[in-house]
Amino acid sequence: MRILVIGCGAIGGVLAASLALVATVTGFDTNHAHAEAIRREGLSVTGAGEPLVSRFEVTDDTAALAARRFDAAIFLVKSSATAAAAAALGSALDGAVLLTLQNGMGNAEALERVPGATVARGVTMNAGRYVGPGHVERLIHGQPTWFGPVRGTLEALAPLGETFRAAGLPTEVLADPMGAVWAKFVFNAVMNPVGALLLGVNAARYEVAAVRDLIDEMAAECAAVVHALGGHFAFEPMEFVHKVRSRAVPISRHAGSMALDISRGAPTEIEELTGHVVREGERLGVPVPACRTVYRLVKGLELAASRRATEQGEKRA
Predict the structure, then answer these.
(1) Residue 159 belongs to what domain range?
(2) How far apart are CA 14 and CA 25, in angstroms?
(3) Are residues 186 and 162 in the same domain?
(4) Domain match, 22 and 60 both
(5) Which residues form the Ketopantoate reductase C-terminal domain (predicted)?
(6) What value does the mean pLDDT of the chain take?
């Protein structure tokens, strides 16, 4: 398959590197230094699993893709950038299956604005982080991915599912992926902002009783909102958390992408995650006091981290 991966940092880089083993992958990333490093030396993938240096075409210039055609385009940019990325890529998306594996709500709806495109949504339980130009780290590896159609047919997605599996990525293509989407959404809407507030120290999410209580309160509020929206869960959203608490699995050092964003002073996906719960809770009359408080705190933290990063950059200059 000819696959365009939009956003090659963190999990986008991890998936692009794997898919490039069995497909013709082209990466698009607005980080010029990252794109240039991949072009020059390939993408280095370290961490969980076998280390890998993957070579594939990559560009930070949408004009270079204008005349290209792809079988699938996988969106892995920040949720707030989905609509802009789709608009900028324009004709490069013609005829491609558009798949979002991003965190948060609103991404599939943004892709549905592309006229006539087959649109799919899903989630992956794998995780990664951007280390630096040309280097990403697998944090969680070998976990399942699920996706299915939002607009279009299940059959249209079958080749992409086969390609994922051929690349060593356990994947299931489902007629209704929303049970998995909602479950991962609740996990992220709870654990990502809490991880950011705790400065990325993952142990604090499990070893402090008050934090455990907060997590449970947020999870219950999120589940109530999902049920009020008519949603369902393919698996228990907080199952992994319960396993860590019972010591069935060890505490990892991965506190979520939001903690990594805060550490860099970068925008987070708080609006598409916990913010979505707060807005829908207010609209539906579902009380979400814990989620609202955490949402407000992360909004403040996001601004503080951004300003600190700017100040530090000015000092270095």
Answers:
(1) 2-175
(2) 12
(3) no
(4) yes
(5) 178-302
(6) 95
Q: Which residue has the tokens 């989905």?
A: 82
Q: Provide CB contacts within 8 A for 293, sequence distance 6+.
A: none
Q: Are residues 121 and 14 in the same domain?
A: yes
Burial of residue 117, with CB atoms counted within 10 A of its CB: 0-12 exposed, 13-18 middle, 19 or more buried: buried
**DSSP 8-state class, residue 61:** -
Give 189's Cβ-side CA count (13 Å radius): 33
Query: In this structure, what CATH number is given to the domain that contains residue 13?
Result: 3.40.50.720
Which tokens belong to 231? 């949603």
Q: What is the CATH number of the domain that holds 299?
A: 1.10.1040.10
Tokens of 100: 């979002």
Tokens matching residue 206: 């499990």
Are residues 57 and 103 both part of a single domain?
yes
Contacts 24+ apart (CB under 8 A), 49-56: 49/138, 49/141, 49/142, 52/17, 52/18, 54/16, 54/17, 54/18, 54/20, 54/21, 55/20, 56/16, 56/17, 56/20, 56/24, 56/25, 56/26, 56/27
Per residue in 227-277, pLDDT (tens digit) is 999 999 999 999 999 999 999 999 987 888 899 899 999 999 999 999 999
> Of 188, 203, 314, whose CA–CA distance to 256 is shortest?
188
